[in-house]
Amino acid sequence: MTSLKTLPKSEKVNVWVFPGQGSQKLGMGIDLLKLPLGKLRLKQAENILGWSISDVWQSQTKKLSNTQYTQPCLYVFMTVLADLMKKSGYHPDVVAGYSFGEYTALYTAGAYDFETGLQLIQKRAEIMSRLPQGSMVTLIGFEGDKLRDEVLKTEDVWFANDDPKYAVISGTSQGVASILSNVPVERVIPLEVSAAFHTPLVEPAAKEFQPVLETTAFEPLSIPIFCSTDFVFSLRVNQVKDNLIRQISRSVKWQMISQRLINQGINKAIQLGCGQGLLKPMKNIDPGLEISNVGSSADIDSIVIRDQLKKLANINPAVIRV
């Protein structure tokens, strides 16, 4: 186990967090198409995948919600953002990811190069795309006890997360429909996924994927990743790989992960990808947490300008007022 107490300290101890499948948005990554790094990564991706990431990003909604396409699209999108952040002089002290997001976190930590990671993701997505159809929905505004009771007694439905305010249930379409018909909910948000992830229903995919993962060479990690099933920081490749297999069929405990990160001294968090879904629970735990979202090259430019202004203000407070 690695503790943040053993890591080099800076003014802010920061974590980069990466969202998982279901966070994708049509139009994400469009600004990256004009950048040299974006063009290079898209060319590399097309050579590996045999199809165009940029076409799916821009106009193919149905493909973007199909696991076989979703995961490679998210991987390319978020890894390019991570590389651009590093080119701008930013580096995390630790990384963490929500489900699939752990793969982009591992890329950022140096576990594999871009192409090796994409080949791994391509195989994972192919395996998971063959799973039976299922449903995942986010529920907002419900009676907690009533929902828990219904989930416990309903066949083939499970909680896929641990958020008491924004519950995600996952299972067969029939099972999820049964829950929704028996529990009053103010708002139901279907997730753009094709299977019942983070349930025992996807264990066959985990078993099929395990030998693929085991035979993929990982480099030593340059920074720790927070393993979502062991709830520890790790630099150990074997532990990280075991975590990647287990997390496929287990509920994502992001509330617990957030609490552990903050307890270890994290006081700055940056989400790379669409939205701020992972940052909100962290901010609720620690209102003083400094948070930022990076979903485009413009967001990176804004962070750079903001930090430059802060430095100027610290040098001479009379120079500028922000």
Automatic annotation (TrEMBL):
A GO term from the CC aspect: cytosol
A GO molecular-function descriptor: [acyl-carrier-protein] S-malonyltransferase activity
Q: Which InterPro entries match?
A: Ac_transferase_dom_sf, Acyl_transferase_dom, Acyl_Trfase/lysoPLipase, Mal-CoA-ACP_Trans/PKS_FabD, Malonyl_CoA-ACP_transAc
Q: Does the keyword Acyltransferase apply?
A: yes
- Enzyme class of the recorded protein, top EC level: transferase
Write down the EC number: 2.3.1.39
Any one GO BP annotation for this protein: fatty acid biosynthetic process
Q: Where is the active site?
A: S99, H198
Q: Which reaction does this enzyme catalyse, per its entry?
A: holo-[ACP] + malonyl-CoA = malonyl-[ACP] + CoA
Q: Which UniProt keywords apply?
A: Acyltransferase, Transferase
* Signal peptide (from-to): none
The question of whether Aminoacyl-tRNA synthetase is a record keyword is answered with no
Tell me what this protein is called.
Answer: Malonyl CoA-acyl carrier protein transacylase
- Please name the taxonomic classification of the source: Bacteria, Bacillati, Cyanobacteriota, Cyanophyceae, Oscillatoriophycideae
